[in-house]
Design a protein that fits this description.
- The chain contains 8 helices and 12 strands.
- It has 228 residues and is α/β, with parallel strands linked by helices.
- The strands form 3 sheets. An 8-stranded mixed β-sheet has the order 1-12-10-11-7-6-2-3, with helices on both faces. A two-stranded antiparallel ribbon has the order 4-5.
- α2 packs parallel to α7 and α7 packs antiparallel against α8.
- The termini are close together.
Length: 228
């Protein structure tokens, strides 16, 4: 079943992490975007832009770039260097976005290295068990797959890696964005924009998303696949 809008929601991680005596409704949704050497620039900049504009459109969201292993410089897939000043702590976010990058370079930095990191995979499982919504896009979905978190679940990824995702147990769906509750996945590269716009709709409602689309001059593409 496909749909394009649902009411606002809150994750269990948000409620659990709220300060003592504070209402979860008054705590901004915490979005962390995992950035690592070899990550493709558009994969994480697109969602970062969407969540940033969502604040101005009325969404209560705080977005941070986070890096495994602590703050430091990251060299992206096309050579862009960025300084990430926040360590990834797997249980602190409400939503964790995992971008892809570097699939065509198995011996270089990128998603292959991430998939081989026992600490990254362990922390992805910790995030999942704590109630964090995991949002993978492009080949970033394959990090979730390596952690055993997509087995038997509807999901998608870049068209060049759908066979890998299927071999690793994912139920691959032909959709640009696939929403299975606490697992939301998207296809290649620019679909990160659609992933983020859908998450904004899910968390804050379609009026906020409409405001983001207006200022970005971009409209979400394709129907979102959701399991009812």
């Amino acid at each position: 079943m496909a749909t394009t809008a649902v009411g606002a929601s809150s994750s269990s991680a948000a409620a659990a992490a709220a300060a003592p005596g504070a209402s979860a409704e008054h705590r901004p949704t915490q979005v962390h975007i995992l950035v690592y050497d070899g990550a493709e620039e558009q994969d994480f900049i697109g969602p970062r832009d969407v969540f940033g504009h969502a604040v101005h459109a009325g969404g209560a969201v705080e977005t941070s770039l986070v890096r495994p292993g602590g703050p430091g410089e990251v060299t992206c897939a096309f050579g862009t260097k960025i300084l990430v000043d926040k360590e990834w702590k797997p249980t602190e976010a409400d939503i964790l976005v995992i971008p892809g990058g570097g699939w065509g370079n198995p011996d270089g930095p990128g998603i292959h290295t991430l998939r081989k990191s026992s600490s990254v995979l362990r922390n992805l499982r910790r995030a999942h068990h704590s109630g964090v919504v995991l949002a993978g896009l492009c080949t970033g979905v394959l990090a979730l797959s390596a952690a055993g978190l997509v087995r038997g679940r509807p999901c998608t990824t870049h068209h060049l890696t759908k066979d890998v995702l299927k071999q690793e147990g994912g139920e691959v769906v032909s959709a640009r964005v696939v929403d299975d509750g606490d697992l939301v996945t998207a296809a290649g590269v620019t679909s990160g924009l659609d992933l983020a716009l859908w998450l904004v709709t899910r968390e804050f409602g379609s009026p906020v998303t409409a405001g983001v689309e207006t200022v970005m001059e971009y409209e979400q593409r394709g129907a979102v696949w959701r399991r009812d």
